[in-house]
Design brief:
alpha/beta, 10-stranded mixed beta sheet, 9 helices, 23% strand, globular
């Protein structure tokens, strides 16, 4: 069980490759001694492990295990994997409907001749957003978390095996829409990016301080709607800086293209800086 919100950690995770339309169902179970057992059922194979299930379901599962410690170990492995391939990995987080997918598809289309961008798409159910990403020509893997409210290091590890992004590229991880739990789970990314829409209210940074404190970048989206909503941009920026003085802020409208060039320049510079660090 998630130590943050109570969502189920022991459950079914579905990973779908949009290129092959093949899906694998992964089941994760945690035993009382902290042992984590992961097994999968693909669309054409069904692996039975009755002795594992018997042990699992006849064991009292401790809810006090250090889930974050287990996740951090997997995240560190992901981070090494990204570094060895000179991949810039970004963890995109927001409330549902803030505009993550819209910004992502626009970014991919505008930069497809300059950057290779692959996507791990996270949602509780459906592959709707992954299908939108696929239409851009980008490689994409869909992870459905079921009752889970966030992606974790293990899901990203399994997703990367399916995605197989090229060297010297960008991997965008679109997390499940949620301003709480995703902030706590390191995925091995280079930077966390929180996306906030002007339709949500300028006090989000102080309502959800951990998210904005954990993020390197805040993208304020849908600024073309400012004449029609009650939103104080300066107050929002002040709140964000109050929580995280180091946070970098971009103000963007995908509809009017305002601010996109600054966001693109940051992406290109960030990937370039990683290349300079290679031996």
């Amino acid at each position: 069980m998630c130590v943050t919100c109570g969502c189920s950690e022991d459950g079914e995770i579905k990973i779908t490759n949009l290129e092959t339309d093949e899906a694998e169902h992964h089941h994760t179970h945690t035993l009382a001694d902290g042992t984590v057992i992961i097994h999968s059922h693909s669309h054409d194979t069904h692996i039975e492990a009755p002795q594992i299930h018997a042990k699992i379901h006849n064991t009292t599962i401790s809810l006090e295990q250090d889930i974050l410690a287990k996740n951090n170990l997997l995240a560190a492995q992901n981070r090494g994997w990204f570094k060895g391939r000179n991949i810039l990995a970004l963890n995109l987080m927001s409330s549902p409907g803030a505009g993550k997918t819209t910004l992502l598809t626009r970014t991919i289309n505008d930069l497809k001749h300059q950057l290779s961008i692959s996507v791990i798409e996270g949602d509780q159910e459906t592959a709707n957003d992954a299908k939108k990403i696929k239409e851009t020509g980008s490689k994409v893997i869909q992870i459905n978390t079921g009752t889970g409210c966030h992606l974790d290091g293990s899901m990203i590890d399994r997703g990367l095996q399916q995605l197989n992004p090229p060297l010297n590229s960008v991997v965008m991880i679109e997390n499940v829409g949620n301003l709480v739990c995703p902030a706590l789970f390191d995925l091995g990314e280079n930077a966390k990016v929180v996306i906030l829409s002007v339709t949500e209210g300028e006090d989000k940074p102080i309502k959800y301080p951990h998210m904005f404190r954990a993020s390197n970048i805040m993208i304020l989206t849908k600024i073309d709607l400012l004449p029609y909503v009650d939103f104080d941009v300066q107050k929002c920026i002040e709140y964000a800086k109050q929580v995280n003085p180091q946070i970098q802020i971009f103000q963007i409208s995908v509809t009017t293209s305002t601010g996109l060039e600054s966001w693109y320049a940051w992406l290109i510079a960030k990937l370039t800086s990683l290349s300079r660090l290679l031996p």
